[in-house]
Amino acid sequence: MQMAKQYTKKILLLVIILGAGVLAAAGHTDLLMDGVGMGKISEANLAYLDDAFDRSLSGFLILSGIKSGLAIIEGSEVGIGFNLEIGDIVQAVYDYVDVAWKTALAGGTVLLMTRLCLEAVALMDHWCLAVMLLGALIYLIFNWFFAGCLRTTRLARETTLFLVVLTVILYVILPISITGASYLSKRITQPIIEETQAGFEDIHKEFSPGYMNKGFFPEDVKEESLFPGFDFKAKYENTRDRIQYIGSFFKERTHHMALLTLKLIAGYVFDCIIFPLTFFVVLYLFTKSIVNFLGRTMIYEK
Question: b/e for 269-295, b at 16 or more Cβ within 10 A?
């Protein structure tokens, strides 16, 4: 009688797992996850990534305008033989702007890829859950009714444990990692990134092509000679003064550009790599330890 009750419980459990697998494949389990709050977490993650991407795109466009202005200065000539000297003056600032430009481009790309990854996960997580339940069903069948098939039972157990970890990653670890990263970002790195973008925006006008061309290369050069076209002394003095002005202009801004660039790099590195990766690794190791414990329990299960 006792054996019959145990047999009935096992069959009932297998039927429940099979039914859960069918519901998971149909996508109904996502409604359950939304009911426990994962839906709101996913919506908050997408909103955060959209906002962060918009900020990154805005900064990228500002830096592109600055690069255009610097490129004009770097390739311009003041007098005869002085174009290389101007290029040397501009090069230090241009290098910082180029690094910041690449950083904004890479940061925006990572943010967009993360958003696409979350969308892909939302389309496949229920299938992973269905396969996991199928693996658990196969394992229990072999463990309960085919005790002699040790190799197949062990393979089914290891596969099921792997699928459990993968399912938890898709449903819980990845979304919570983005949520944790967004929480830290809003309080630590977002103010830094906004500060750097405000600084770049302040100097965008000065580094715009129109402003630089007008400020560095004015057309209304006054020449006191009776033959302006041949007044080489005036041309030389004007060229010398212009180069000195350009040198002092970029010298004052090189330090500021370097500071803004370093802050921007640090902000995006923490935003896109360190914060989400830290949460992911911690949650993954925690989940893996629990699954390993369950795996050891399953080994001694009779």
Answer: ebbbeebbeebbeebbeebeeebeeee
